[in-house]
Design a protein that fits this description.
Structural class: alpha+beta
Radius of gyration: 21 Å
Strand order of the largest sheet: 2-14-17-16-15
Number of helices: 9
């Protein structure tokens, strides 16, 4: 199916909006609900296609889910399966995040490779090696991964690279292992911190997220409860960058202006201010109309927790000029993308 967007350019942007919950936070947190045989209320849950795919997996596993306004209620008490079929695995690439949680809960799990292909480069090798370090036995048969974890033991897990997904899978599986697990070279994104906070809110004991070393105390009795997902920093930064490119003034509600999420500043001459409200934080961005579309600055310096670099932004040059022109020149601009 082909999706086509028509953009009428040449106008400054003004307005105020609330940023949705983070997709990259809610997906591993939905998997983490399997760690407790109880009801979890996930507030500020974005209504996205990947969330629908995660809900379909939860329901296939025997869990009950329903929406209450912007909150997703998940009851995992009746989970009675440890197998995710190929059709559900194909719905999203990040479906592999359920592997560690199912293994921790059931001590066994059977899934297919995301995308259903067993050949070629395997981006989930880091996940599998991390689970193996915790004592999981993994066999490949006919495109399926059959995992057994009857003797999961806390251990030292060394990641060759700070993969977000592998860090999350190791963290989830470690919750079901006996003893203490230490994950080295862990990913430091704020979504990892959000996963840690959710597990701790259920009664877990995870420490160090946001840094390169995470410790997990396994086999703790976990319970349900309410938890609010952090705002999507990528969505927030997108709106701020649009205001910086087009000119105008945009106010974002619900974002976290702390370093590691969206940090206020003055990137490329576009000032960004933060302020607090009783219902949460917010960012206020001003953009200035540029005479030459060849220079399109970023609007916010968003730092990954513990990272040194800012979010990448467009710089001077032909490519940036072409993109910037779409914002600053009047007329229609067409963006096409294929969805499979």
């Amino acid at each position: 199916m082909m999706c086509e967007l028509l953009v009428e350019g040449g106008e400054r942007l003004y307005g105020e909006l609330t940023i949705q919950g983070s997709k990259n936070s809610v997906l591993p947190i939905l998997a983490a609900t399997l760690l407790c045989a109880d009801t979890c209320v996930i507030e500020n849950c974005p209504k996205l296609r990947d969330v629908d795919a995660s809900v379909a997996i939860l329901r296939h596993l025997g869990c009950c889910t329903h929406w209450e306004d912007s909150a997703l209620v998940v009851d995992t008490a009746r989970m009675d399966r440890a197998v995710v079929p190929d059709a559900l695995m194909r719905e999203m690439r990040s479906s592999v995040i359920f592997l560690g949680a199912i293994l921790a809960r059931c001590k066994e799990a059977t899934i297919c490779y995301p995308g259903g292909c067993e050949l070629g480069p395997r981006p989930i090798d880091l996940h599998l090696s991390a689970l193996s370090a915790l004592g999981a036995e993994i066999r490949e048969t006919g495109g399926e991964l059959k995992c057994r974890g009857g003797t999961l033991l806390g251990s030292d897990v060394y990641l060759p690279m700070p993969s977000v997904g592998a860090t999350e899978n190791a963290l989830l599986c470690a919750c079901g292992a006996d003893g203490v697990t230490t994950i080295y070279n862990a990913a430091r994104e704020p979504e990892i911190v959000d996963l840690q906070n959710f597990i701790n809110a259920m009664g877990g004991n995870v420490r160090g997220a946001g840094g390169s070393i995470i410790t997990v105390e396994g086999r703790r009795a976990l319970h349900g409860g309410k938890y609010r997902i952090i705002a999507d920093r990528i969505v927030g930064a997108t709106y701020l960058c649009a205001a910086a490119c087009c000119g105008g003034e945009v106010r974002l509600r619900g974002v976290d202006p702390r370093p590691g999420h969206l940090s206020p500043g003055r990137g490329g001459g576009a000032p960004v201010h933060s302020h607090r409200r009783p219902a949460g934080g917010g960012l206020h961005g001003h953009g200035r109309q540029r005479r030459h579309p060849g220079s399109v600055p970023g609007a916010a310096a968003g730092r990954g927790a513990g990272a040194d670099g800012a979010l990448p932004r467009l710089s001077n040059g032909r490519a940036a000029g072409a993109d910037g022109g779409a914002f600053e020149k009047r007329g229609q601009h067409r963006f096409c993308r294929e969805y499979f």
